[in-house]
Amino acid sequence: MSAPAAVPGAAVPRTGGGRTGPPAAVPRSVVLGLTGLAGFAAVQEVAPRLLHLPADVLPPLSSILAALATEVRTAAFWSAVEATLLQWALGLGLAVVAGVGAGVVIGSNRVLRRMTASTIEFLRPIPSVALIPLAVLQFGTELRSALLLIVYASFWQVLVQTLYGVADVDPIAEQTARSYGLGRWARVRYVLWPTAQPYVATGVRLAASVALILAITAELIIGSPGLGQEINSAQSGGATALAYGLIMVTGIFGLVINVGVRAVERRMLRWHVSVRGETV
Amino acid sequence: MPRAVTRAGQILALPVALVALWWWASDGSTSIYYPPLRRIVDIFPDTWLAGGTDARLLTDVVPSLVRLAVGYGLAAGVGIGAGLLIGSYRALRELTEPVLEVFRAIPPPATVPLLVVLAGIDNLMKILVILFGCVWPVLLNTVEGVRAVDPVQADVCRSYGVTGTARIRHLVLRSASPQIMTGMRQSLSVGIILMVISELVAASDGIGFTVVQFQRTFAIPEMWTGIIVLGLLGTGLSLLFQLAENRLLGWYHGLRRAHRHE
C-alpha cells in the first residue's frame, strides 16, 4: 500500500497509471451493462433447454430469433410495423398539439385555470380503455378507433405538464416583458414558452410511451391492424416463438422511443440549466 | 364567506355546466350509440346496484378491484424490494440496468396473449398482467431514489452506527419515498388500464368483461353506465392515492414549500 493515497483536491489522472488497463478504457458501466444483457440472453437460451420447458411456454432465444428472422422478410410484418408507428405518431402528434395549445391558453388565464382545474382532475384519471366499447361501435377497426384511445390517454399527460410549466413563469420576467411593451404574442414566445418548454418535454416523453401502450392495446383488443394484432394471431396460431419475437420488437420500439425522445429533449433544451450542466 | 362561495363556484361551475350540456343535448336523442343521459342515469341503479348479493357491484366490480389490489400490491412489494437491493450496490445496478430498461420498454398489453397461454384465463393471468405492467415503474424509480440518498445523511448514519434495518427504514426508504411514490402513481394508472384489458381478452367476470358484454349485446345505455363506473373508479382511486401520498409525504411537501419560501 505504498501507492499515494487519493489526496482530496489533487486530481490524479486515472488513465495511464493503471496496471494493465488500456489508456482509453470503455466505461465500467457499459461493460457491466453489456455483460448483464449477454447474461440474460444466455439464460434465455439455456434455461428452456435445461428445464425442458415446452416450446409453447418459453422457447430458447435462438428459436425466437430464427422465427423473427423469417418474419422480417414478409411484407405483412412491415405493414404491421408501419400501421403501429403511424397510429403512434399521429396520436401523439394530435395529443401534443392539443395539449400544448389548451395548456397555454388555460394556463395563462387565472380564471380559466381555476374554473377548469376540477374538471381536468376528474377527467384525467379516467382510463382511456373505458372508451373501447364506444370506439368499437362508432369506428369499428378503423384508424380513428385507435386514435381516439391514444389521443385521450396522451392528451392529459401533455396538458397537465404544460399547465405546470406555464404556472412556473417567473413573475418578474413577465412584468419586465410587460414594462418593455412586449405584446401578448411576444410574451408567449419569449417568456412563457422557454419556461414551459422543459415541462412540455417531460409531458411529451410520458405521452410517447403511453401512446405506444394504447396503440398496442387498440390492435390487441379492437383488432386494428398492427403489431398487437400480429402478436395475437401468432399466439393463437401456436407460433409461440414468433409471439415472443414480436413482443421483443415492441420492446425495442419502446426503447428507441424512450431514448429518441430523451435525445430530442436534450437537443431542444441544450440551453437549459438542467441539460447544460454547470462546470464551475 | 364570499370567498369560499367563489371558490366552490369555480370548482363546481364547469362540471355542472358540462353535465347539464350533456343532459340537454342528449335529451330526446334517438341515436343508438348516444342515448339520452336521462335514460343512462335511470337504469344505473338497476344495472349495478340491484339484486342484493347478485348485484354487479359485488359480482363484477369487487373481483376487478381485488385483482388490481393483489397485482398492484405484489408489484409494489417486488419493485421496492428489488429496487432497494439493486440501488444499494453500484455493480449490481450497472449490471442489471439495461435489462430492466428493456423490460420496462415493452408495452405491457403486448404480453397479454402470452400470459393467457402460460397462466390460463383465470385470476392468476390477470394478476400477472397487472404485476408485469406495474412492477417496472416502481422498481426503476426506487433504484433512482436509493441512488440519490444524501451522502451527508449517509455519513451521519454511519457515524452514529445506524445500520441494518434501521438504516433502511429511517434513511434509505425515507429519502427514496418521493421517488417511490412517483413510480407507484405511474403504476396505478397502468394497473387500471391492464385490469380492464385483461378482462377484455378473456374473463367470466369483472368491469371490463361486463362493459364489453353490454356492447356486444347492443345494450348501449347499460354500456354507458359501465363507462361511467370505470371513470368513477379511475378518479376515485387517483383521489385515494393522492390522500395516501399527502399523508406519507407530508414531511417532503412541507420541506419543499419551506425551501421555496427561503
Blueprint (SSEs and pairs):
The complex is a heterodimer of chains A (280) and B (262).
Chain A: H1 28-50, H2 61-71, H3 75-107, H4 110-123, H5 132-139, H6 143-167, H7 171-179, H8 184-222, H9 227-236, H10 240-268, H11 273-276
Helix pairs in contact in A: 2-10, 3-6, 3-8, 3-9, 5-6, 6-8, 8-9, 8-10, 9-10
Chain B: H1 2-26, H2 37-48, H3 56-88, H4 90-105, H5 112-119, H6 123-147, H7 151-159, H8 164-201, H9 207-216, H10 220-248, H11 250-260
Helix pairs in contact in B: 2-10, 3-4, 3-6, 3-8, 4-6, 5-6, 6-8, 8-9, 8-10, 9-10
Describe the overall structure.
The complex is a heterodimer of chains A (280) and B (262). Helix content of chain A is 73%, strand content 0%. With 280 residues, chain A is mostly helical. The longest helix of chain A has 39 residues. Chain B has 262 residues and is mostly helical. Chain B is 82% helix and 0% strand. Chain B starts with a helix and ends with a helix. The interface between A and B is large, with 64 and 56 residues.
Strand content of chain B: under 5%
Instruction: Give the oligomer, counting copies of the same chain as homo and different chains as hetero.
Output: heterodimer
Strand content of chain A: under 5%
How does the helix and strand content of chain A classify structurally? mainly alpha
Distance between the termini of chain B: 32 Å
- Which pair of chains forms the biggest interface, and how many residues does each contribute? A-B, 64 and 56 residues
Main sheet overview of chain B = none
Q: Structural class given helices, strands, pairing of chain B?
A: mainly alpha
Shape of chain B: globular
- On the 0 to 100 scale, the average pLDDT of chain A is 84
Task: Give short descriptive properties of this protein.
heterodimer, A: 280 residues, 11 helices, globular, disordered N terminus, B: 262 residues, mainly alpha
